[in-house]
Amino acid sequence: MGDVLLMAQPWIKAFHILAVISWMAAMLYLPRLFVNHAGLEVGSQASELLKGMEVRLYRLIMNPAMLAALAAGVVLAVLGGQAVWGSLWFWGKVLFLGVLLGFHGYCTRWLKAFSRDENQHSARFYRFMNEVPTLAMIVIVVLVVVRPF
Predict the structure, then answer these.
(1) Disulfide: which of 29, 54, 99, 143 matches 136 by Cβ 3.0-4.6 Å?
(2) What's the whole-model pTM score?
(3) What is the number of other CB atoms lying within 10 angstroms of the CB of residue 23?
(4) Other Cβ atoms closer than 10 A to 34
């Protein structure tokens, strides 16, 4: 089984990258929808339209992409063995992965608040929060590609 996984490693890596791109796209787009939604009147046609868009993005892209990225990432980390687990860059990546997972959790909370018409945040708040996954992604890419330590 281990030989099969080693032979499949480039495919697993490609799948991981595609899943991460999908997850990031959703985490960058969902707060942008929140920016637009925050300024709308509760119950308006536009508000209801955005609710549907937000839920579909979250359920059909964001969650499945996150799960796929995590699954492929764990397999790659296991295949990498001590060379990965003993590297400081890897643990930095894990730390910023935690930031992304936390942000995903907050998106879940905000999505539920919008669906109940109980949003408490301004468009400016969501505009600011939209930068969190971008910054985490930049750090992760630098850690994985450059491996500064």
Answers:
(1) 99
(2) 0.93
(3) 24
(4) 24
